[in-house]
Specification:
The complex is a heterodimer of chains A (about 290) and B (about 325). Chain A is of the alpha/beta class and about 290 residues long. Chain A is built from 10 helices and 7 strands. Helix content of chain A is about 40%, strand content about 10%. The radius of gyration of chain B is 19 Å and the shape is globular. Chain A: This is Transketolase.
Chain lengths: ~290, ~325
């Protein structure tokens, strides 16, 4: 169990709310992009960039850094928003998302923005890339850890299972994979489009260690990540149950928000909802 | 006549004594040499280690060999991760599978990512022989040469494949190396110049009527055709155009300006191949009549290597015919 104290957790939760607001502003300004997955992963990104990762935003190429590979590149807004809040680049640059000449491309590109580990967007390739990094690191006795964030929808892809087999065979315990189990993909619910269950048993069959957590419970997630570090004999996958669109009632659970941004009017309403924690507190902006 | 500066073997036209070796063997040797020079070199294979000759590296450096199984998408993406981390990964399979089956993974995780993975596609061309069309890659040059950041090499014999492999290891870009299964004449030597991006004149003449621009195993056929044409009083140049991308525009333009007509030769579809790349340059810089030797919008089939080369119009006589035709097309 991690020794993270309650105050720190509370701080991370508040920060996650701020980052959700940044995501809403970015997507509204961009006029296109993926809202549901970005909001749903805010707590996990927060946990990574503000607690888990051994990294240096001022020196993104630092050789000993932990690597975070985002396989489902379409949730770039939450990646960019978190990186900006963590100090990789100025917060105001988040407003350039998807614009001509921007470093913040619609899907992340390694060659354009320091701190992006791999170019991604086409689904299914991130796990194998993470595996290549982890394999190379193990050859050189490097101590850093490699994390790979995947969506549940991309578990449809054959490349994922090629990677799952490879990682299982090679017992890459310096790699931890996280699946955003939010149950939606573009065409509908994952279990209608192409059933993934029993997902846990599938990974087990490929010799992985599996943990399931509430992806909005930052403490539970951090505990699982810590636990994974202690498992030497197998790679670990954390199936993080999340609510797509988390934080905004109108978006939550609705697959239609997978790939669209809020309108200006919606954004106003959503930002207010986030600032007031759904009406529980008064917004300082009111 | 043979360009002396090319330092080709003396018995180049003596079919009985000329040594024969597949280009994949040259790759196998070059990879071991690269591995000896730099510990960062690692090799990955998709269950074809013996026939791609990556096995020679595996035996020498077992700790740097990574088996992927029959999973070419994984082959490309694991290598992408290794390259991003800092290794120099070579991935080998048959060209129909890699860069065929895993094309999107190569596009995104290697080319767009600018991850310096070295992609080795063996068994390219109809000269694969008995395995038939499923295993005869005829579109790999087209697939690879449209990708930004990618270097594309098609060595003409095993010795050049060795050099190409070694040099590719130490370039900072992704590279595609095209190899053949069947034995072919070994006619270059250790002293033959080789530089990525630099075409070499292998056959020179004072007043060329056409230039033959060739790559891969067919360069030797081109030289044979040049000799026979010369005996008949038709003079040509032969360029060994091993680097399809970035292409040596200067050498090509100089040669075409001298000769005024072009025949391109490759064991690949005409559409999108090396000849197309030459035509793109000429159309913009120096239009000249051009004939394309290669496969015309067809798949291959089972047969013996030389049988298939003849059937698909890539033999010595077809080359000679194309030269005569292109010379007739010249506007005097």
């Amino acid at each position: 169990m991690s020794d993270i104290h309650e105050e720190k957790i509370k701080e991370l939760e508040e920060k996650a709310n701020e980052i959700r607001q940044t995501v809403i502003k970015m997507l509204t300004e961009a006029g296109s992009g993926h809202t549901a997955g970005s909001l749903g992963m805010a707590d996990i990104f927060m946990a990574f960039y503000f607690h888990i990762l051994n990294h240096n935003p001022k020196n993104p190429d630092w050789e000993e850094r932990d690597r975070l590979i985002l396989s489902n590149g379409h949730i770039a807004p939450i990646l960019y928003a978190t990186m900006a809040h963590a100090g990789y680049f100025p917060l105001k640059e988040t407003m350039t998302l998807r614009k001509f000449g921007a470093r913040l491309q619609g899907h992340p590109e390694r060659e354009r923005l320091p701190g992006i580990e791999t170019t991604s967007g086409p689904l299914g390739s991130g796990l194998s890339q993470a595996a290549g990094i982890a394999y190379g690191a193990r050859m050189d006795d490097k101590k850093f850890r490699t994390y790979c964030l995947m969506s549940d929808g991309e578990q449809d892809a054959g490349n994922i299972w090629e990677g799952v087999m490879f990682v299982g065979k090679n017992k890459l315990s310096n790699l931890t994979a996280i699946i955003d189990r939010n149950n939606i993909q573009i065409n509908g619910m994952t279990e209608d489009v192409m059933p993934l269950e029993p997902l846990k048993e599938k990974y087990e069959a490929f010799n992985w260690h599996i943990m399931e957590v509430d992806g909005h419970n930052i403490k539970e997630f951090i505990d699982a990540i810590d636990m994974a570090k202690a498992i030497y004999e197998k790679p670990t996958v954390i199936i993080a149950r999340t609510i797509p669109g988390k934080g905004i009632k109108e978006i939550e659970f609705d697959y239609k928000w997978h790939g669209k941004p809020p309108s200006k009017e919606e954004a106003k309403k959503f930002l207010n909802e986030l600032r007031t924690l759904g009406g529980k507190i008064e917004s300082e902006h009111q | 006549m043979i360009n002396k500066d090319a330092k080709l073997v003396k018995n180049i036209f003596e079919k009985d004594s000329l040594e024969q070796e597949p280009t994949r063997d040259g790759f196998g040797r070059g990879l071991v040499e690269a591995g000896e020079k730099d510990k960062k070199v690692v090799a990955l294979c998709a269950d074809l280690s013996e026939s791609t000759r990556i096995e020679w590296f595996q035996k020498k450096f077992p700790e740097r060999y990574i088996e992927i199984g029959v999973a070419e998408q994984n082959l490309a993406t694991v290598a992408s991760g290794l390259a991003i981390y800092g290794k120099i990964p070579f991935i080998a399979s048959y060209a129909t599978f890699s860069p065929g089956r895993n094309n999107e993974q190569i596009r995104t995780t290697i080319s767009l990512n600018n991850a310096p993975v070295k992609i080795v596609g063996s068994h390219a061309g109809v000269s694969v022989g008995p395995d038939g069309a499923t295993h005869q890659a005829l579109e790999d040059i087209a697939l690879m040469r449209v990708l930004p950041n990618m270097t594309v090499l098609a060595p003409c014999d095993a010795e050049e494949a060795r050099k190409a492999t070694f040099e590719a290891a130490f370039t900072r870009t992704p590279v595609y190396i095209r190899l053949a299964r069947d034995k072919s004449p070994l006619f270059t030597t250790a002293d033959t110049p080789f530089e990525i991006g630099k075409a070499e004149i292998f056959w020179d003449s004072e007043k060329p009527q056409a230039v033959i621009i060739a790559c891969g195993n067919l360069v030797h056929n081109a030289l044979f055709a040049a000799k026979e044409l010369s005996d008949d009083g038709v003079e040509v140049l032969v360029l060994n155009n091993h680097t399809i991308k970035p292409m040596d525009t200067k050498t090509i333009l100089d040669a075409v300006k001298r000769a005024g007509a072009v025949v391109t030769i490759e064991e690949h579809q005409i559409a999108g191949g090396m000849g197309s790349a030459v035509a793109e340059i000429l159309a913009q810089e120096h239009p000249a009549p051009i004939e394309f030797i290669g496969v015309h919008n067809q798949f291959g089939q089972s047969g013996k290597s030389n049988e298939l080369i003849e059937h698909y119009g890539m033999g010595v006589n077809s080359i000679k015919e194309a030269v005569r035709k292109v010379v007739r097309r010249k506007v005097i």
